[in-house]
């Protein structure tokens, strides 16, 4: 009996010592705040899976981030081996850029991206979401801290998120984003994280990155096959209709014409929320097209990164280039219409 009491006391003592080693939520918050202030940069790789269509889509994501006294520099590389169109978002001293190497196009903005919304693959954005949510939940599971927070994503269907950090280093492990009914829509698994990685400003140069990406495109795809596919798209592509229409918008006309660049389709919506969608075959430019969009920024459309201005949204998907124009839709409504067109199984009418 006495031996059993000693064993129970010893086990209780071990549990108490283990509990004493755990940090409180307030202590972890202080560590995260300090991390945010001290960090000069990082490099990370991740796998992002989207559950927003009929079938999951997985993307390889690479992020490079550098901060100095002058600016914050970003390069986000999004790749899917089953899709011909990979894209990059770059921020440097010249602005914010959306690069589509397969089309040899670069959209340039004067934008405060990524500060205006949550960004699932940016570490400092995740920390900010944790710190800013006074109603967050916190738990410790084995060697990880698990937070559940509200979100501020461009897509308002992304309602709340679970962020998992390493207890020793506070490095990101994973993120899961859910809708209001707790259905998982996006998951990100981080495979490595190098804090305070060293970069040169040239690592964030758009011309250098476009050239390097074009070399990858040329190496991975047959030029003759690409030319045949582009010619085929000029003559024929499936017309894509939005499955989401803002309340008060009505499709009034579908007009098709043939131009020197190929088939052109114009969808005209009237009503209280009028807008126009132009669809043309996506074709690579002979030389890099640097398109200055003025004020605006990148928009996450699930399977593509769009380029937004005050009254328009441009993106490419499935070999088709889309332009949505309206003076009556706000940024959220334009993005919702575009997202409903980027999932082929759902969007082709």
TrEMBL record:
InterPro entries in the record: LolA/LolB/LppX, Sporulation_related
Name recorded for this polypeptide: Outer membrane lipoprotein-sorting protein
Leader sequence residues: 1-21
Native species: Salibacterium halotolerans
Gene3D superfamilies: Lipoprotein localisation LolA/LolB/LppX
Keywords of this entry: Lipoprotein, Signal
Keyword Signal: yes
Entry keyword annotation includes Signal: yes
